[in-house]
Amino acid sequence: MVRDTFTPGGDSVQNSRPEEIIPPAKDPEHRRVAAATIIGTAIEWYDYFLYAMAAALVFRQLMFNGLSPAASTIVAFLTVGISFLFRPLGAFLAGHYGDRIGRRKVLMLTLIVMGTATALIGLLPTYDTIGVASPILLITLRVIQGISAGGEWGGAVLMAVEHAPVKQRGIYGACPQIGVPAGLLLASAILAVMSQIAPGDAFLAWGWRVPFLLSFVLIGVGAWIRHSIEESPVFVEIAELAETESAPVKVLFRDHFPLVMVAALIFAGNSAVGYMTTGGYIQGYATDPDGPVGLSRDDVLWAVTGSAVTWLLFTLLAGWLSDKVGRRTSYIIGFILQFIGVLAVFPLVNTGSVTLFFVGIAFLTLGLGLTYGQQAALYAELFPASIRFSGVSISYAIGAIIGGAFAPMIAAWLVQATGTTSAVTVYLGGMTIIGLAAVLSLRDRSGIPLGPDHEAEQSVSPIRWLSRA
pLDDT confidence of 202, banded at 50, 70, 90? Predict the structure, then answer.
C-alpha cells in the first residue's frame, strides 16, 4: 500500500512510501468517532458560547448593574476574556494527562466539568439579590469553563485526526471543528426561542436561565456518546511501546517553543475575528438601544443562528479542501477571504437593516470557516506523537488569548474611544494579516506519519527559517 506523505525540508506531499504501522480504522469506527467529536464538541462550545452571548444580552444588566451602563458592558465582556487566561492551565493539565493516560479519559472529564459549571450559572442569584457575591460567583464559574475549554479542543481533534485515514485527515479533523459553529448555532437558537417564549422582562427574569439549565441534560448525552468510542490508535501504540513522555509540557517548550508560537498566531488571526459573534460583541452592539444600529434582540439572535450554519458549512469545506490542496494553501485562501469579510462586516451591520446585518456576518463566516476547518489536521501534523496533545492544546490556548480572549472588550473600547467601528475594522484586519504571515512561515506537512515510530521525522521543524538551519 502507498500513501501521500511529507518529505522533511520540502513542500511536496506526493511522495510514496509504505503505510505506517498503525492500520487504518474501519469505516464504522471512523463514523462513530466523527459523530462523537461533533456532538461532544458542540455541547462543550454551546456551554461556552452561551455565556458569551448572555454577557452581552443579560449579565451586564443583572450581574453588573452596580456599574454605569458603559462600564457594565466593558466589564461583562472582560469576564468573557478572563476565562481565556485560564485556558492555558486547562491545556497544560489536559496535555500532560492526555499524553500520559489517553485522550478519551481527558475528554470525558472536560465535558462533565464544563457542563456542570454552565448549569450552575443558570441557578445564580442576581446582583439585586445577593449583591457583589453574584458577579464573583459568575466569574468563578466562568474561570472553570475556561479551564475545561483549554483541555477540550486538543483531545477532540486528536481523537478525530489520529483515527482518520491519512488522505482524509482534513475532513475528519473538521468534525470537531464544526462542533464550534454547531455550538454557536445551538446557543443562539435556544436563546432566540426563549426570547419568544419569555419576551421582554420575562426573559431577564427567568427565560435566560433555561438554556443554562439545559446543560444538565446535555452532560448525560455527551458523556454517553464519548464513552462509546475507542481510544486513539496513536496513543494505544504509544502506551504499548511504553513511550509516554514523563514531562511532555517541559519537552514541548524546550524543543518546540517557536513552533508553539507560530501555531498560536495562526489561530489568533482567526479567533479575534470569530469572537465578534461568538464572544457576543456584535450581538450587543447591534441591539444596544442607545447605539447606532438598534436591531431587535430576536432578529439579531436569528441572524447569528443563520450565520452559524454558513460557518459550519465553510468549516467542513476547509477540511475537505485541505486534503486536496494542502493545509497551507487552504489557509492562504481562507485568510484572504477573511480579510475581505472584515472590511465588509461593519459597514453592512451599521445600515440598521436586519437583512444586511445577516449578509455581513454570514459573509464573514466564509473566511472564518476557511481558516478553521483545517486547523485540527494542521496542528496534529505539526507536533511529535509523544507531546502532541500538549502541543495542540497549549498552542490553541495561547492563540485564543492573543486573538479572541479580549477581542470583544477591545472592540467595545475602540468604539467608545473613537465613536466609530472603523478602528475595530483596522484591528481585525491586522489580526488577519498576522495569521496569514504565520501560515506563510510554515512548510506544508500534509500526510506526515503520525505514529510514535516516526518521531524523528515529526521533530524536524516545519518553520521555514529553522528547517534551513
Answer: very high
Instruction: Residue 276: give the domain boundaries.
Output: 27-467
In this structure, which long-range contacts are made by residues 417-426, counting pairs with CB atoms below 8 Å and at least 24 apart in sequence? 421/285, 421/346, 421/349, 421/350, 422/346, 424/346, 425/342, 425/343, 425/345, 425/346
Backbone angles phi, psi at 287, to 5 degrees: -100, 0
Q: What is the DSSP letter of 23?
A: P
Three-state secondary structure call for residue 229: coil
CATH number at residue 192: 1.20.1250.20
Q: Running DSSP on this structure, what letter comes out for residue 18?
A: B
Q: How far is 429 from 437, CA to CA, in rounded Å?
A: 12
| Nine cell digits for residue 291 | 447605539
Residue 22 lies in a domain: no
How high does pLDDT run on average in the chain? 84
Reported as a single tens digit per residue, the pLDDT across 47-85 is 877 887 888 788 888 988 878 877 887 888 788 778 778
How many whole angstroms separate alpha carbon 275 and alpha carbon 281?
7
Is the residue at 440 inside a domain?
yes
| Whether the predicted pLDDT of 6 surpasses 50 | no
**What whole-number distance in Å separates Cα of residue 306 and Cα of residue 301?**
9
Residue 20 lies in a domain: no
Q: Is the dihedral of CA 458, 460, 461, 462 positive or negative?
A: negative
Neighbours of 65 (CB within 10 A): 16
Residues 461/9, Cβ–Cβ less than 8 Å: no
Chain centroid offset of residue 254 CA: 26
Considering the domain boundaries, does residue 9 fall inside one? no
Q: What is the total count of domains within the chain?
A: 1
Strands (E), 271-404: none
